[in-house]
Amino acid sequence: MRLLIVIVNYKTAGLTVDCLESLAVQIDPSVDRVVAVDNCSEDGSLEFIAKALLEKGWSDWGVVEQAPGNDGFAAGNNFGIKLGGEKFGAFEYTLLLNPDTRVLDQGIRTLVDFMEQHREVGIAGSRLENPDGTPRCSAFRFASIASEFERGARLGIITRLLRHKVVAPEVRDEPHRAGWVAGASMIVRQRVFDDIGLMDTAYFLYYEETDFCLLAHRAGWACWYVPSSRVTHLVGQSTGVTGVKRTLKPLPGYWYESRRRYFRKNHGRVYAWLADLAWLSGHLIYRLKSLLLRTPREDPPNMLGGFLRYALLGKRGPAS
């Protein structure tokens, strides 16, 4: 088999069906399969998606199954990858695709062709777009102590001085190598899974694709951004954390916990502590600037409190 596409749904059944509809004209039923995983939505999602697969004639290439529990994005994807292997056999590639996406034009073929032509590439990501066609940053650098300081400060002179450390650089129109790409549309060569395993299920949500790409990088696999593969992304529909309305609610505890795990797991406790200190120092600069200039802060509510509680003090938040 050529390509397995895994879509993890949590209370976004309508969007998942829309995503499947965008795939229907791009799937080759002889070599491609789609596994939709319902992460225990308990809102009728499983039945809704199953009915759509049957009524729209997609059941020859698509299936839907319920995960054992709502254990997060990484766990849901791992469940789908294992299920695809059990049902259909081995695949050359796996595409992780968010339910709140629609793949445009020949977005699937473009990614697969790129991987076929670049055998040293283990992971590649699509250009993610807003509904109006404007691009979102979806190719990133790995976070560091310097980038955490810049991210906290958000001050022009600091950003310019640390421009080569900024995690989210300006969007480019040509294919290029990246540290990591957004997991909303990320294709992975099977040999990468063979080398480093599946995603780390200790991440409930956020940082899991960053962690996975870093492990692949350390194993010698290149990660690339392929903007000719275009995907519309309705950001944050499952969580409400990111996207247009992201400032209307605090970041959940698991965001801070995932960040803490990423730094401690991959760089050690001392480095993680220095990254925390860098972000906190930068954030205090940002707050001082906002106070002096009397400009509103653009943070989610209680971000400093959440950082102190979950990142520095290591408190545990709710699972979801």
Would you mind describing this structure in some detail?
The chain has helices at residues 13-24, 45-55, 73-88, 107-117, 145-153, 156-161, 190-196, 208-218, 253-267, 269-293, 303-312, and strands at residues 3-9, 32-38, 62-66, 93-97, 101-103, 121-129, 135-136, 139-140, 176-177, 180-181, 185-189, 222-233. The model has no long low-confidence stretch (mean pLDDT 93). It starts with a strand and ends in an 8-residue tail after the last helix. It contains eleven helices and twelve strands. The relative contact order is 0.14. The strands form two sheets. Strands 1, 2, 3, 4, 5, 6, 7, 9, 11 and 12 form a ten-stranded mixed β-sheet that branches. A two-stranded antiparallel ribbon has the order 8-10. By secondary structure, it is α/β, with parallel strands linked by helices.
